[in-house]
Records
---
Amino acid sequence: MRLFGLSLRLRLVENSIESTRTRIHLRQPCQNNSTCLNDNTTIRGFNCNCLSGFNGTECQYDYRICQLRTCSYNGICYQSSNTTFTCSCNEGWQGVHCEIKMNYCKNITCYNQGVCQSLSSNYTCLCIGEYYSGRYCEIKSGKIVTLERVSKSFGYIAIIFLIGTAIFIITMDLLKYYFGIDPARKRLRPRKCVKKQKTIPVVQKFYYKSSLKKRSENSIVVIEETNI
């Protein structure tokens, strides 16, 4: 009876061990694609064979050089050695971990007060209003060209006027201080003495014939005028 009881206990222990191993394999305690191996010498009854870069009793620690967050913005990490890596960045990003956005406007000049805007993979120049166009805002509209020509014309006229005024002032100074000629000074002309002429009296005589019948036909009226 004692032997029978002992053998029964051994079978129960073996069954419990087998059931434990079965539960362990079903649970898959080894992480990160590691291999689970039965080991009767350990309390757990198994060991995990970890892949390169993983460690721990269940391979739960990741010591790989290239991890999911090593390269930012969906960059691809390439392990060049056990301690170094290289990130292949997507378009528009740069840096060791692809963390720096590329500035495409660094060496770009937008004309006519245009503003350069960096895009994900290129750049564009934002022109002011509808007066400028083109990739670098270098094309001017007809209205702007006309205004520039008019302003230049007025500028040239003002410059010519100033130059003429300066030449006139310099010429006047040269005539005055080097040649003793002052054209701006008015010379007084001598007045001529005008003698008053005496008025000579003029005597005018008018003869009128009377047409009246009462008077004689030969009657004459004499009127004298004298100018003194």
Note: The radius of gyration is 62 Å.
---
Amino acid sequence: MSRKLARELTMKVLFEMHINNDFNIQRVEHHLFEGSIEEQQKEYIHKVLNEAILNLEAIDSIIEEYSTSWKLNRIANVDLAILRLAFSEIIYMKDIPYRVSINEAIELAKIYGSDETPNFVNGILGKYVEQEGLMLNE
């Protein structure tokens, strides 16, 4: 399994957790690791999910702050899952370049979101990166 597919699976799990309002990683781990997932990708999935769950309030607060005029409960569930994934990577996984996280989030948005989702996701992530000065640290 490639990192791209691992990222997609992680987004789907975050989506499922949100829909079920159950952010207990033990409940999803059993079916997460069925099949042929390489150890490196298992580690990635586990780390992203842990960071997203442990920092859910902080991540959601950032999403609300940068999605001007949009309350969290008005953001489409899939868009929210994509943003939570991307912010988990950008903020807590410094080994992943923020540009990769943004590009991959946009690709997921093109596949799973509405026609507006890629621009919405790009706008929020781009504003965050700019405001936080991450572009200066390249």
Note: The chain has a mean pLDDT of 90.
---
Amino acid sequence: MVREDYVLRIDRAHRLRRIWTGSKDRRAPGVRALFALLIVAAVAVLAIACTDDDAAPAPEPVATEAPQPTATATATPEPTPEPASLSDDDLTRAFVTSAIEYYDEHGLDATVEFYKSEAGIESGRTLILVDATEYVLLVYRAIPALQGQYVGPDSSFTTLAHFTELATEEGAWSVTRGINPETKQEEPRRALVVLHDGLVFASSHSALVQDVAESVKEYVSRAIAKYEAAGLDAVISHYNSRDSLEGQ
């Protein structure tokens, strides 16, 4: 009995040991996993702490002033020179040239009608238009009644006859007596006569302000030319008449 009881006790002890040992073996993997998890968590906390300690603080932005635009000197433009004022001769030539251009564009009839009207007057200048072949005065606003008259050689209109002899395609100048279209008074007039397409285009401006020496020189030159062409008696007769009142 004693032996059997002893055997039973030993057998029970072995069973309890196996039970304890088996239970410990079953729990060991869970415990090891828990310890591993704790170790990993601790390492992560330490790594984060070290990173926070070692990270350099971000530099604060430094305020900078915006660059100021550089002032550049503005060049002052050179003043545009005013065009030189036209002389009386320039204006008279421009008037005659304009009349010729009007004739070329519109024809003879339209030119006659236009320059007979008030619209044909410009800056105290009117057009004198003569048929250089028939010596017929086509336009003459100073004395409209003379329009259509013969003004050639041997006519009583010596000044107009002189225009037909003097006219060239380039234009020729002459100082004569004429009517101022604004004052309606007779005065010395400086005239330009141009021959174009068988017509004499002429216009004039007041010569009262012309250089006296130049006018006298031209007047004397014409007297000499008349003397050489017609002789002394003709010169005396001419310069005793009203027709000799030319120039200043």
Note: The CA atoms of residues 171 and 194 lie 4 Å apart.
---
Amino acid sequence: MGLTAHEKQLITGSWGKINAKAIGKEALGRLLNTFPWTQRYFSSFGNLGSAEAIFHNEAVAAHGEKVVTSVGEAIKHMDDIKGYYAELSKYHSETLHVDPNNFKRFGGCLSITLGHHFGEEYTPELHAAYEHLFDAIADALGKGYH
């Protein structure tokens, strides 16, 4: 099921407050720290041997920003998220061989990070809308695996 009109409104109304670099760095850092086996996809990033190394790694920050910027672009295509991510899904499945469960894991890390940055503004309703969006994105990115 797609996102509701109300969910889309909540997301578009709040996304403009996002600092893609800060959010991306923290969310990807959380993923790499919490799920250390995901580090195998980022061997070119240098030292990821500790939480401190991860959270101070410029390659992590740059890639996190890239991913969060992509989410921002997907928000502009909420009516066709699968279409928007079709090529990226294929790339992640056929070239990078990323475990598709990691897309869902990243969505969880991103949701936690948004909660941290939004504070009280991250209401249960807004949280649920973002979770629905991140599930749709994870599903779209996993499409290349089906």
Note: The chain has a mean pLDDT of 95.
